[in-house]
Amino acid sequence: MDLVTRIGAIALDQFRGWGHAAYFVAALLRAVPASLRRFSLVVAQVYAIGNRSLIIILASGLAVGFVLALQMYYALVTYGAAESLGLIVNLALVRELGPVVTGLLFAGRAGTSLTAEIGLMKAGEQLAAMELMAIDPKARVLAPRFIGGIVSMPILAVLFSAVGILGAYVVAVLLIGVDAGNFWSIMQTRVDVLRDVGNGLVKACVFGVICTIVALYQGFETDATPEGVAYATTRTVVISSLWVLGMDFILTALMFSTP
């Protein structure tokens, strides 16, 4: 019976945690319309979340483009299909690597920053002070950051893919010697804007929602101690990364299961 009791207690704690998270998300969504009236706060968060993540996104996209072009060329040239290099690189980036790698980098850079910022505000009792002044901290602090994360993530994913394609062009055309016209023409004729690029943007939007909600929730619910804030930032990266990878599989199965 002790084992059954222990399992039941763990299950109840899990359900209680999920319910609390669902209540937090509902309250956050209710606070979004009010935060939109403070548009300057949203713009400031788009800058803080998106612009300050730009360097690592561009550098990572360029590196991924370099490596992807090299690996795909060595694989395709074996079968005499090197002319498909531009298409393979483009589809890999806009469908998969762009949204997923950007989501993981977003969780590691912007997500931890949001969690630490909110956690330190809680530890400094700034959120409690807002409540005492009849100011909803979800509308004043969390919702602008939530909107900023959702807006920033697709833009960063597009820039990642664009820089990755440029990096692949440099390696494939300028270094290896693939025909430039063939590199771009097959990409233009075989890549569908709605199916490929559009679905990649949908993935990026979903990942932006996930990473931002996880970061805000972990910061808002953390223990108001230095150890609690440090532990919350770690949980943000782990939970966000697992959700991004899991949702990527589900979305890929739904979007690209039919030819």
Secondary-structure blueprint:
Elements lengths: L1 H35 L2 H12 L3 H25 L6 H39 L2 H7 L4 H40 L3 H11 L2 H28 L5 H30 L4
Helix pairs in contact: 1-6, 2-6, 3-4, 3-6, 4-6, 4-7, 4-8, 4-9, 6-8, 8-9
Number of domains: 1
Please, what is the average pLDDT?
86
Give the total of beta strands.
0
As a whole number of angstroms, the C-alpha radius of gyration is 22 Å
Count the helices. How many?
A: 9
Helicity range: over 70%
Shape: elongated
The sequence of SSEs as H and E is: HHHHHHHHH
The major β-sheet equals: none
Give the terminus-to-terminus CA distance. Answer: 53 Å
Strand content: under 5%
Query: What structural class should be given to the helix and strand makeup?
Result: mainly alpha
Characterization of the model:
This protein is mainly α and 259 residues long. The protein has one domain. Helices cover 88% and strands 0% of the residues. It contains nine helices and no strands. It is elongated.
Give the tags:
single chain, about 260 residues, mainly alpha, about 90% helix, elongated
Brief rundown of the structure:
The protein is an all-alpha fold and 259 residues long. Helix content is 88%, strand content 0%.
